[in-house]
Amino acid sequence: MKKHLASIAFISLACLSAFAQKATQKFPKFDTEAHRGGRGLMPENTIPAMLNAIDLGVTTLEMDTHITADGKVILSHDDTLNPLFTLTPDGKEMSKDEAHKQALLKMNYADIAKFDVGSKPYSKFPEQKKVKVHIPLLEAVIDSVQQYLKAKGKPQVYYNIETKSKPGGDNIYHPAPAEFVKQLMEVIERKEIIHYVIIQSFDKRTIQFLHKKYPQVKTAYLVDIQKSVNEYVTELGYKPYIISPAYKLVTANMIQQCHAQGIKIVPWTVNTSEEIAALKALGVDGIISDYPDLLEK
Q1: What confidence tens digit (pLDDT) does each residue in 252-271 have?
Q2: What is d(CA 187, CA 68) in angstroms, rounded to the nearest whole number?
Q3: Is 83 in contact with 172 (CB distance < 8 Å)?
Q4: Which fold has domain 29-295?
Q5: Were 205 and a residue from 72, 113, 177, 261 both cysteine, which residue would form a disulfide, CB within 3.0 to 4.6 Å?
Q6: Residue 117 in contact with residue 86, Cβ under 8 Å?
Q7: Is the pLDDT confidence value at 67 over 80?
Q8: 148: exposed, middle or buried (C-beta count within 10 Å: 0-12, 13-18, 19+)?
Q9: Does this model's pTM top 0.90?
Q10: Cα separation of 249 and 277, whole Å?
Q11: From 119-123, 206-210, 293-297, the region with the lowest mean pLDDT
């Protein structure tokens, strides 16, 4: 009986320890983020890109999300199909006009998944490996990543998930903020990754709503206009976990201002070794890059 009780106690302690570790998932000391999964090397916002980034040792997978007509959360930077790297279901190229008529919010996921977003050469990223692949569901990305981490014995990564929205696009290209956040968080909570998620956006409305509704979730404010850190915080109405500026906006003073307020600074999108080294020397807390292979050098 004593042995039985001791076994129960041991199992209980182990479960509590695992829960505590999960609940206190530490943010990386220096955050290396694969932008859109590392689109310099693999087709952007796809499962192969995310798994490749894991192999390269990044601490965070950065990705963009949209919502489909049938309420699915998918990975895509663009509001519509992108003709620069998308082929039709029968393998043909798309004109700009044809592609831009295909708003993802107006399409069901089954139809979106028929398009190939990895086979067409993408001149902006000549080193990108060509793989026939489709726009994935966020939940499929999470499942694939978590299974891959376990199979490879890799440490848990963070997910930095952007809500692709702007005030003029509500109910045209994306749901209004409350609905967008609701659908995104349903996936995050169901997949139990809330302890290692950051939600980022240029659209302050989505992260403001998220901060009120889910204050335990880390948020990042994406910015591309030079202002003081106090101005960013004031317009947002709270202190985000991260301020994520276009990298050319970063100065030693901006970093000092962020750190003085307990805010991390993780700039985007930094694609040369020289710029990465310079920003590290200034004291940023992480870097987002299309070339995750450069981040570990």
Answers
A1: 999 999 999 999 999 999 99
A2: 14
A3: no
A4: TIM Barrel (3.20.20)
A5: 177
A6: yes
A7: yes
A8: middle
A9: yes
A10: 16
A11: 293-297
